[in-house]
Amino acid sequence: MEHTKEPWRYDSQQGFCSELVGADGILIGAFVDNPTEADARRIVAAVNACAGFSIEELEAVAKHGGFIDQTRYNAKITKQRDDLVAACNEVRRCVNGGAKLSRRASDMVRAALASVEEGK
After folding, report:
1. What is the extent of the structural domain holding 75?
2. Roughly how many angstroms between the first and final C-alpha of the chain, as a whole number?
3. Whole-model pTM?
4. pLDDT given for residue 8 in this prediction
5. Which SS3 state, helix, strand or coil, does residue 13 take?
6. pLDDT of residue 108
7. Is residue 89, in this structure, part of any structural domain at all?
8. Are residues 45 and 86 in the same domain?
9. Are 87 and 112 in contact (CB under 8 A)?
10. Read out DSSP for 53-87?
11. Does 48 lie in the same domain as 79?
12. What confidence category does residue 15 fall into, taking pLDDT thresholds of 50, 70 and 90?
């Protein structure tokens, strides 16, 4: 079964139940007790921000702390990758030049690997 397509909107009229309505105008839900404006806006904003993600993708992200934690994790592994690439390039520079591995290259490799290993 498919979920109601985005964008969703919140409709509230004096004397009527507040409603969540899908893009096609179909009623998604009605509130018996009106939520605060902030709560209703948050529900709609969250659903609309997730447009294009499958339910399974959203469940996986939620399982790992949500989008903010996932963004932080991605930034961390991107830095680790960049540090490893820099260290490998320094090793290659030394090896291609026929030199022994420099102290700098050795330190770069050690630090990059330690960062990756601590994140296991």
Report:
1. 66-118
2. 37
3. 0.50
4. 92
5. coil
6. 83
7. yes
8. no
9. yes
10. --HHHHHHHHHTTHHHHHHHHHHHHHHHHHHHHHH
11. no
12. low
